[in-house]
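User: Predict the structure for this protein chain, please.
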Amino acid sequence: MTCVEEQVLARQLPAVPFYCPVEPAMHPGVDVLNDLTVDWMLRQNLDTDEHQRKRLAVCDFGGLTASTMPYGRLEPLTLMAKFHAVLFSLDDGVCDETDATADLLAQETSRILRAVEAPAANGRSDSPHTAALRALRTELEQFASPQQVRRWTDAMRVYVSGLVWEASWRRSAELPSLNDYITLWMRAIGMAPTTAMIEVVGGFSVTDEELADPRVQALTEITWTLVSWDNDLYSRNKELLRAGDDLNLIDVLCQELGCEPREALNHAVAMRDRVMVLHGRLSEQVLADASPELRSYLEGLGQFVRGHLDWASACPRYSVPSGPAAQPGGWWKRHPSDAGREPLPIPTISWWWEQLAVPA
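Assistant: Here is the predicted structure, written as structure tokens:
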């Protein structure tokens, strides 16, 4: 083992158990869904490196999609699984594990945006990722209304803007502030276009007015953020080992609080649990008078948080055999480490707590 490898292993942290009161579920088409998605992904030639192709082939995109969206018809669900496959390939091959600059990524993501804005335009010079997303955008029209297509396209703008911002920090010797990192990562994680697919996969339509409700907007952002923080908590060891990556909630907290990683881990878990508790409280309030369509959307948000964790708990993508052992209690815990009602002192998200009704 080299000195560098020893230093990386020394920075690794034990796995932590997650609090998530949402019940698990699984779409019955999970097995065929994964086979269809992997076969399609390999035919797109998204990655030229054979090792990377094999890594992606065992990511279980079918399991991710079937556990996060255990409802709807198989056809739009397969579209969602294909979208996951492209995003993972884009994340590994273009964003995280290469030397892509913000300038180069801005060019690539601008081409991607043009492809999803105008999929009928000439695409002869498309990169493999752009070509795949152009095809998925065209396929989306089979299942989505014009309103839903517009929402998904707008959500792609949110996503790619986050990728460029992320790339600018990956080339920096410094780390962003906690406030900036949370804003960046809720966008770059790719959850905006993913949550825009909940109603498409579910076969229902929420009105613009319902989605514009600040409480619903808060719950949508909470979902993006929980998924991004959960990803940071279980993927940090893998990212350190493969890419030497410290653009992570724990490392940003180390900088923000002037503390060591194990202390930052405790802070991160407490933050995450308080947001999970807020998700439950605010969901309960909105569901009290929600339309059937909005109810389905909100339930879909909660299911995504739970399904994402169920998938990650078994996905070989995040397995680091040399990493520290898990803490007692395994992957799950029954109670949050922080159930406070006070807003976290982070300007970009503190407004979420303002959406809670004052207890009588």
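The chain is about 65% helix and 0% strand.
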